């Protein structure tokens, strides 16, 4: 009896907290949770993909299964999650900002341009601007995540038996931040941000475009079905990533240029790196790891969109159209009261 009473009290407290939260805060919470869960699920594939993109000779030659075996043998299970702490530390604020900014930009466009068509183009624009905003605020964490994932560190036993040569430049997230900032200042923490922005604008926009467009064709009674959301999210992530993947490869190689060529202090820009990869490593290298990325993106985007939609329902976030109507009504009430005054 007492247990049920305690549960009711906890439920009432949670209801009070949810009701008191502003809408943007609910969107931040839903987006951050969605990003953190999705990123953790696919972290092992993300590690292999980064090694494919940046350590071509060592890992591409042995393929996906060979790479998984090599990481498992030399670094153990935790090797699959190397850099994941920085990845989650980045993705939670990134996803929170991304989803919240998408909703805010979408509402702003509708309110500022009432005659603008509320079709998929609206989602494309809002998603693109939201992606750019999130990247600018969280990029240093992405850089740190890549540098940590790039390191190949063997356990002490492996080192003794000569399986790999230990390479431990950074001891953790704060150490990587500190050393990167000392080496190149704030500019060093934003190394590779240009291709990130070039890639995120179309990718984020296309991702929301395809997701919302596919949901529009789903029968009303099926729209709350989790499997339907997962399928829509999978296809949206797959299509969006295909168009922008080469810029992701350029970004990764720019992020680890200093580690790859410690004696060469000359750092190349986005288009120089793109040209160099195509010329010296071959055009195929621009799509290196894409097959792994498909395996990663399909569940990642699907889980992200699904968790976000489920959390919005749990947090009682009104539908997008209801939210816009509410803002317009409040605006009119304020204008009306000021006129009466």
TrEMBL record:
<dbReference type="GO" id="GO:0005743">
    <property type="term" value="C:mitochondrial inner membrane"/>
</dbReference>
<feature type="repeat" description="Solcar">
    <location>
        <begin position="118"/>
        <end position="217"/>
    </location>
</feature>
<comment type="similarity">
    <text>Belongs to the mitochondrial carrier (TC 2.A.29) family.</text>
</comment>
<keyword id="KW-0496">Mitochondrion</keyword>
<keyword id="KW-0677">Repeat</keyword>
<dbReference type="Pfam" id="PF00153">
    <property type="entry name" value="Mito_carr"/>
</dbReference>
<dbReference type="InterPro" id="IPR018108">
    <property type="entry name" value="MCP_transmembrane"/>
</dbReference>
<keyword id="KW-0813">Transport</keyword>
<dbReference type="InterPro" id="IPR002167">
    <property type="entry name" value="GDC-like"/>
</dbReference>
<dbReference type="GO" id="GO:1990559">
    <property type="term" value="P:mitochondrial coenzyme A transmembrane transport"/>
</dbReference>
<comment type="function">
    <text>Required for the accumulation of coenzyme A in the mitochondrial matrix.</text>
</comment>
<dbReference type="InterPro" id="IPR023395">
    <property type="entry name" value="MCP_dom_sf"/>
</dbReference>
<keyword id="KW-1133">Transmembrane helix</keyword>
<protein>
    <recommendedName>
        <fullName>Grave disease carrier protein</fullName>
    </recommendedName>
</protein>
<dbReference type="InterPro" id="IPR002067">
    <property type="entry name" value="MCP"/>
</dbReference>
<dbReference type="GO" id="GO:0015228">
    <property type="term" value="F:coenzyme A transmembrane transporter activity"/>
</dbReference>
<feature type="repeat" description="Solcar">
    <location>
        <begin position="22"/>
        <end position="108"/>
    </location>
</feature>
<feature type="repeat" description="Solcar">
    <location>
        <begin position="224"/>
        <end position="314"/>
    </location>
</feature>
<keyword id="KW-0812">Transmembrane</keyword>
<keyword id="KW-0472">Membrane</keyword>
<keyword id="KW-0999">Mitochondrion inner membrane</keyword>
């Amino acid at each position: 009896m007492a247990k049920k009473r305690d549960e009711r009290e906890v439920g009432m407290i949670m209801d009070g907290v949810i009701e008191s939260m502003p809408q943007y805060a609910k969107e931040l919470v839903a987006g951050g949770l969605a990003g953190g869960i999705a990123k953790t699920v696919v972290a092992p594939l993300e590690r292999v993909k980064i090694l494919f993109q940046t350590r071509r000779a060592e890992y591409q030659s042995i393929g996906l299964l060979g790479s998984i075996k090599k990481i498992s043998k030399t670094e153990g299970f935790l090797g699959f999650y190397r850099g994941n702490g920085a990845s989650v530390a980045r993705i939670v604020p990134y996803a929170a900002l991304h989803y919240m900014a998408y909703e805010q930009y979408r509402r702003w466009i509708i309110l500022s341009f009432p005659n603008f068509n509320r079709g998929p183009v609206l989602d494309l624009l809002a998603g693109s601007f939201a992606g750019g905003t999130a990247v600018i605020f969280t990029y240093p964490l992405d850089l740190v995540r890549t540098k940590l994932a790039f390191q190949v560190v063997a356990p002490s036993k492996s080192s003794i038996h000569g399986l790999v040569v230990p390479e431990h430049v950074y001891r953790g997230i704060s150490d990587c931040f500190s050393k990167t900032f000392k080496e190149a200042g704030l500019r060093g923490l934003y190394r590779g941000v240009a291709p990130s922005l070039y890639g995120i604008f179309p990718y984020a926009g296309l991702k929301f475009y395809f997701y919302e467009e596919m949901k529009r064709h789903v029968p009303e009674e099926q729209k709350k079905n989790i499997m339907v959301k997962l399928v829509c999210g999978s296809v949206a992530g797959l299509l969006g990533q295909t168009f922008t993947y080469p810029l992701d490869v350029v970004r990764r190689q720019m992020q680890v240029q200093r580690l790859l060529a410690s004696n060469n202090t000359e750092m190349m820009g986005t288009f120089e790196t793109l040209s160099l990869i195509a010329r010296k490593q071959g055009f195929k290298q621009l799509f290196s790891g894409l097959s792994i990325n498909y395996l990663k993106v399909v569940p990642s985007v699907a889980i992200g969109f699904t968790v976000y939609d489920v959390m919005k329902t749990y947090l009682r976030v009104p539908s997008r159209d209801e939210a816009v109507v509410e803002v317009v009504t409040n605006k009119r009430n304020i204008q009306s009261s000021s006129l009466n005054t």
